[in-house]
Specification:
Elements: H1 2-11, E1 18-25, E2 28-35, H2 69-79, E3 83-89, E4 93-101
Helix pairs in contact: 1-2
Length: about 100
């Protein structure tokens, strides 16, 4: 979760908003992390889960990141038979949707 949250916290300007919602539905846990930050252009979206991929390090408030956080999120979700997806609109923000099978 810390890797998933670090992106909206780093890419949302001061005074912006990051929301997290969690729900259980149809034997799965669904987590949504949404921000009203910069957003990512459509041509970058297919690559943001690639290791070492950085959209624009110059815009980050924390430029020390190496572009591995979302790759870790994707790997962990795969190991747990889950998924992670992203929606983005430039200038309006992003939404990450994580789905994990729940264990009863």
């Amino acid at each position: 979760m810390s890797n998933l949250l670090s992106n909206p916290l780093n890419w949302t300007s001061h005074g912006g908003k990051v929301t997290i919602s969690v729900r259980q539905c149809d034997g799965k846990v669904e987590i949504a992390v949404k921000d009203n930050g910069f957003g990512i252009a459509p041509e970058h979206l297919p690559h943001i889960f690639d290791r070492l991929y950085r959209v624009d390090p110059a815009r980050s408030q924390h430029p020390t990141g190496v572009g591995i956080g979302l790759a870790i999120v994707k790997s962990i979700m795969t190991l747990h038979r889950g998924t992670v997806e992203v929606q983005s609109e430039v200038g309006k923000g992003m939404r990450f949707n994580v789905t994990i099978p729940s264990s009863n």
